[in-house]
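A favour, since you know our structure tokens better than I do. It will help me judge whether the discrete encoding reads sensibly. The space below this message is yours for that.
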Amino acid sequence: MVRTKTTFRCTACQYVTFKWAGRCPECGAWGSVEEAPALSPLQTSALQRSALPESRIASTTGGLLPSSPARSINEVEGSHAAVRSTGIAELDRVLGGGVVPGAMILLAGEPGVGKSTLLLEVVRRWAEHDTALYITGEESAGQVRLRADRTNALHERVMIAAESELATILGHVEQVRPSLLIVDSVQTMRAADVEGTTGGVTQVRAVTNALTNLAKTSGLAVLLVGHVTKDGSVAGPRSLEHIVDVVLHFEGDKNSTLRMVRGIKNRFGPTDEVGCFELCESGIKEITDPSGLFLHHHSHTVSGTAITVAMDGKRPMLGEVQALVAGNGIPSPRRAVSGLDSSRVAMILAVLERRCGLSLTGSEVYVATVGGMRVTEPSADLAIAVAVASGARDLVLPERTIVIGEVGLAGEVRRVPGAGRRVQEAARLGFTRAIVPADSDAMPHNVAVTHVRNVGEALSALAPEAKQK
């Protein structure tokens, strides 16, 4: 007697397991796992074949005849994949030049960071050449109109509808015939023929799959807005990021007006680009040269400062590192770090004390960046070391000098990738001197470059602070 195998299937996401569980391990739904008899491969094949016409069934192998034959890749038309600009250069930079027709784009970010404001600017620029449809599920059409009035994002070809039903959205698309569809947000949309709560795993996946099929079959570019969790990842199933073509992350500090769009996944371009924006009362503006935001313009040279060049993706950005060394002989001195990796700062302080003879044991040390800039790459190590030594010894670097290099535990200065490009960006902004690792690549001719092998050689460039007139 053949024993029938029993499986358990989740009614929400159809996940199959051989052991019952109160919570589905795939979608996390409670009480959705039910007992179901396992089907043999022959039964599964029969069920699949019974739902298809006889003309689709291949009798020789049991497979299915394709509805259209395979073609040579040289015969496939590529004109429909031409990139179209959004009218916003910083966003085009991250997208790889613009929006590809039929592309599925996911824009994720925290609430209040400015996603809707950015999208209104996108549809306004897009409407200058073609029709755009904006679907809002979190706000009413009147609320979006008020924001559009404030940001001057009004245009007669910008169509808006406050809907949350997937079928109704598809009806709007068929009626309006836009070339760009904005859905804000995917967590508020619902498919009537799919079980599950709005914003749940099943609903989000079903809505995304339906909109993806619409984009691929009609050539309509779709831009979805997604929420993020507390740890900053895209909310919903991980498969949501695999369904779409492009995943963008919109980030920014609520205490700063700077906003950045980063590419996490892009099937049409690079994923190491970043776009910079400034969020203000009149809307959102592009920042083509963000380095000026992270530099503090002093009236005279002061100690405890060093300028470095960090790479955010492929984009070099100048930033200022400031250090303050206060007190002497304090039993429990404080160490405070802002905008930098605290573990690397602690390592650099140990290197300065052990390799360079700089006594910091009883002193409080404060190290921070300017303008809310966040630097985590090792290329800022040498700038941190120079800034701390400058503040402790009351010495300054020569004016218009940048410092680049990674510091090792032995006090050596290691090379960093793209040093020539970093120095070239600094030269464009008026810097005339650079302290770089000894084995760096070719440097611009209009910059006086000092190659150093260890931290001690870099500190020798410090000079007593000039008296302020």
The first strand starts at residue 6 and ends at 10.
